[in-house]
Amino acid sequence: MAQDRKTSVGRRDFLRALGAGAGVAVTAAGPLATAAHADGESNEEKRKARYQPNAPEVQTYYRVNRYPATK
To answer: Is residue 13 part of a domain?
Structure first.
């Protein structure tokens, strides 16, 4: 039994090697995410009203989700 343990790779050793290999692969590949860039909206564009209650999409939403009146 002791001989089998020397020739075969144990589960823990396998997982250690797998984790070490993944860590090396990530550091060798470089950063996975790029730097974040701000969008091109000005302060005026950010503050403008976007909700339009008379838009067809909004009216359809309210029409579809209207509940029947309870009596």
So the answer is: yes
What local confidence, expressed as pLDDT, does residue 57 receive? 92
Do 52 and 58 touch, CB atoms closer than 8 A? yes
The count of structural domains within the chain is: 1
Structural domain of residue 12, as residue ranges? 1-28
Alpha carbon distances (Å) from 24 to 8, 10, 13, 17: 24, 21, 16, 11
The kind and range of the H/E element at 32 are none
What letter does residue 57 receive in the DSSP assignment?
A: H
Alpha carbon separation from 59 to 30, 66, 67, 68 (Å, rounded) = 49, 11, 14, 17
Report the pLDDT value the prediction gives residue 70, as an integer from 0 to 100.
Answer: 65
pLDDT of residue 3: 55
Structure tokens at 46: 């950010």
